Here is the input.
Amino acid sequence: MRNDIKSVLAAAGLAIGLAVSSGAVLAQNANLAPGFTQLAKAAKVVVMPVDVELFSMSAGGVNEPRADWTTAAHGHMKTALAAKSTKLGFSAEPMSEAAADEFAEPIALHAAVARSIALHHSMGGGWALPTKDGKLDWSFGDAMKQLQAKTGAQYGLFVWVRDSYASAERKMAMVGLAILGIGLTGGVQTGYASLVDLNSGQVMWFNRLARASGDLREAESATESIEALLAGFPKVQ
Here is the structure.
């Protein structure tokens, strides 16, 4: 009898383990283009400069750009992205900000397409596009060919981040209205990371970050944000 119970419990444990593993695999696969499972170690990847901007949220909820915060965040994230690229083990070639000026159009296009992917793929639900069938099937067409020709890279890694922080006035308003039972939001950190095949324009991997935590003005927190954005990056072999 006891052996039977042990067998049942063991089988149940195995089933739960398989279910959890399957769920993790499905979640990871959802961030990969169909048929893409790993990144060749020898494949050259041009790492584009981090597209980041920070804001101060006024009492009324208006986001006001802060150049000093953005400069600090850019430096922290640039360092963190370089370190993470080395850790992941792919053949990375960082592009300087000066060189990236020539590619302002594809960089801006990436931001627009990434927002669409985040809405229609990552969030899904009622926003999901039936024609995509839940797959990461997005392309830039020929828009990245100039970047490929210039760099000789097979892939491009793009990172886009926007972060806002509640000002002192906003915090006071949040506390005051909370007493009346009215909730106000503080700052929000939103980011997208994409690995793009520069030849075909296909998005091979995508990840989204949306949360009310993190502080890109600090090196340690900026490093954590890069880690979160590149979580689930394709295996390099």
User: Anything to note?
Assistant: The longest helix spans residues 2-29. Residues 31-236 form a domain with the Rossmann fold fold (CATH 3.40.50). Confidence is low (pLDDT under 50) at residues 1-27.
